[in-house]
């Protein structure tokens, strides 16, 4: 268990939520590009403009609100928060649009996922929003797995979609317990991921093997090599491992990690959002680039709202932690 002070931990909660926001908002202008084109257009990042978030952050905020209100992961309430707060104009995939519309039409949360995809979705939608669960269960990886599957099952009942969320939440949790002043502990993270992914789909075990092999080369691989080896798609097993590799390799340098995630091309906002949540959970808000954070939209559910939500989520963790340890 971590011996980090509450002040440091609270900063890490802010770092993870804002890290997702930053990766999503900075990555969204590159969606669908191939790695070469994404690299070519990287100068867009230097422009000082208001950066708007998309579905990744929108759902992350709604999930955090539910955990704060319920003091746990309650799928019925999460579905209610999605129904109330998801802004479907923010770049949602068609499957999620249909799921939220079904909830708004009165369908029960347990019936929605198979209405959209008969065999369940294996997209990265359950993983992209999951960082609040990784934060409040960073002290309890068994509790984390159970809660992640619960929150995923509202929209994702396919094992690939659910276990991708487990891998992402666990990566966030393992980043929370690391000292922000030290470099990312790669071996410890891989061991932790192996333990939690044991018994899950073989695709994630294979991806971990590849990540280990890539790390053993002792160099940072080119974007096209990472995209070819681990993927850059909207499928959970072809995007979550890529985000983990980027976070492990480039953290604690937040800007380098986001640039590397975007340079993969493909589902850039989600991969950068997931990598951003992991690196943010490691370095905390103090380790985020101020000039980037200042560019984030700050409307009714913008940057200040997200910061405040992270603080309230930290208070929820204190209650969950006290309950589970005593
Ligand atoms: Mg998005």
Note down, in words, how this protein is organized.
- The protein has helices at 6-27, 35-40, 55-70, 75-85, 94-104, 109-116, 125-128, 131-136, 141-152, 159-176, 186-197, 202-216, 223-230, 240-250, 254-263, 268-283, 290-293, 303-325.
- It has a single domain, classed as ADP-ribosylglycohydrolase fold, CATH 1.10.4080.10.
- It contains 18 helices and no strands.
- The chain is mostly helical.
- α3 crosses α4, α14 (240-250) packs across α16 and α15 packs antiparallel against α16.
- The longest helix is centred in the C-terminal third of the chain and has 23 residues, at 303-325.
- Magnesium ion is lined by residues 24, 54-56, 91, 269-270.
Short recap of the structure:
By secondary structure, the protein is an all-alpha fold.
Number of strands: 0
Bound molecules: magnesium ion
How large is the count of helical segments? 18
What is the top-level CATH class? Mainly Alpha
Poorly predicted runs are none
Radius of gyration: 18 Å
Percent of residues in helical segments?
A: 55-70%
Strand content: under 5%
Mean pLDDT: 95
Distance between the termini: 15 Å
Task: Give the H and E element order.
Answer: HHHHHHHHHHHHHHHHHH
Q: Supply the number of structural domains.
A: 1
Second rung of CATH, namely the architecture: Orthogonal Bundle
| Class by alpha and beta content | mainly alpha
What name is given to the CATH topology?
ADP-ribosylglycohydrolase fold
What is the makeup of the main sheet? none
Mind sketching the topology for me?
Blueprint: H1 6-27, H2 35-40, H3 55-70, H4 75-85, H5 94-104, H6 109-116, H7 125-128, H8 131-136, H9 141-152, H10 159-176, H11 186-197, H12 202-216, H13 223-230, H14 240-250, H15 254-263, H16 268-283, H17 290-293, H18 303-325
The structure holds magnesium ion.
Magnesium ion (MG) is lined by residues 24, 54-56, 91, 269-270.
């Amino acid at each position: 268990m971590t011996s980090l002070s509450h002040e440091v931990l609270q900063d890490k909660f802010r770092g993870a939520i804002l890290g997702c926001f930053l990766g999503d908002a900075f990555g969204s202008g590159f969606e669908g590009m191939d790695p070469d084109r994404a690299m070519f257009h990287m100068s867009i990042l230097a422009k000082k403009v208001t950066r708007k978030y998309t579905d990744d952050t929108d759902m992350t905020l709604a999930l955090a609100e539910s955990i704060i209100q319920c003091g746990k992961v309650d799928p019925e309430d999460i579905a209610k928060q999605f129904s109330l707060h998801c802004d479907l104009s923010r770049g949602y995939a068609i499957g999620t649009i249909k799921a939220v519309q079904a909830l708004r039409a009165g369908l029960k949360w347990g019936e929605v996922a198979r209405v959209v995809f008969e065999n369940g979705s294996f997209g990265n939608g359950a993983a992209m929003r999951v960082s609040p669960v990784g934060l409040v269960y960073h002290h309890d990886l068994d509790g984390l797995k159970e809660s992640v599957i619960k929150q995923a099952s509202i929209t994702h009942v396919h094992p690939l979609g659910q276990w991708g969320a487990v891998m992402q939440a666990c990566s966030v949790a393992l980043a929370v317990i690391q000292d922000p002043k030290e470099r990312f502990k790669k071996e410890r993270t891989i061991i932790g991921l192996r333990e939690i992914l044991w018994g899950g789909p073989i695709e994630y075990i294979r991806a971990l093997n590849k990540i280990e092999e890539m790390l053993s080369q002792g160099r940072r691989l080119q974007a096209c090599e990472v995209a070819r080896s681990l993927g850059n798609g909207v499928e959970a097993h072809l995007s979550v491992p890529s985000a983990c590799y980027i976070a492990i390799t480039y953290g604690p340098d937040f800007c380098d990690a986001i640039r590397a995630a975007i340079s993969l091309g493909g589902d850039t906002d989600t991969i950068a959002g997931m990598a951003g949540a992991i690196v943010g959970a490691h370095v905390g808000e103090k380790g985020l680039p101020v000039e980037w954070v200042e560019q984030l939209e700050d409307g009714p559910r913008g940057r200040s709202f997200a910061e405040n939500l992270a603080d309230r989520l930290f208070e929820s963790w204190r209650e969950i932690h006290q309950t589970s340890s005593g």
